Amino acid sequence: MSESQPDWDLIAEKFDLWLPYLEPVGDALIERLHVHPHLRVLDVACGTGEPALSLARRYGDEVDVVAVDAADGMVRAARAKAEREGTRGIAFRIMPAEALAFEDAGFDRVVCRFGLMLFNDPAQALAEMWRVLKPGGRFALAVWGEAERMTSLRLTAQALDPHLPEGQKTPLMQVTSMGPPGVLEAALETAGFTGFEVSRHELAYAFDSFDAYWRLVEDSAILARQLDALEPARRDAVRDEVAALAAAHHVDGRLVLPHTYLIASGTR
Question: Is cis: bond before 51, omega within 30 of 0?
Fold first, then answer.
């Protein structure tokens, strides 16, 4: 991970604050996997357990779900949720996407939600996904679209980045690195994928107020490294600037922040 990314181990217990906003993406990925009983499914970069847990809740031990993430804090949080719920048919392992410790063609399905652009080596991670997927097996992955359509992070980066040194800026460009036209398609083809399609989708984060949104940003610690680098007065000024920029996105008294994401899905 780059220096501008958050400490995923630190924020693992708080990341679930974002899950309601990301749930539609997980549902869309599961739909494209065409899962049925007796399949083995791999969730790469599962974070605190999604969409792996949703799959296991839906199918129980009729489907064998394996979920991996490079951050042990994320895996601990995911495993704890599964144990609390008594979720069956799922196992978690600490593992980087670039070095999947599984046999060739060992999975019927592979899914990855918003992980690819954050990997140290996305090309190697895709090659590994291709390697462990059975011929004819299906995959589905999601990445964020262009930077200008990543509204929540773009507005914050616009206000925050001028106050930060190089190497500590917000991860906007990395988070959206797979979004420009043709980038995701080229990466998939290089990894060996051929039978796939890429579609664009809209996702809105809706809040009762800007204050509600900013509380989520601070409580989830997504930008803790960047915000903590500022003196309190400057941090307040950044917040006020983000609020001013976000004013254009108030709809019927609510703050609605639009985003674009891409889904690639198909067969090996």
Answer: yes
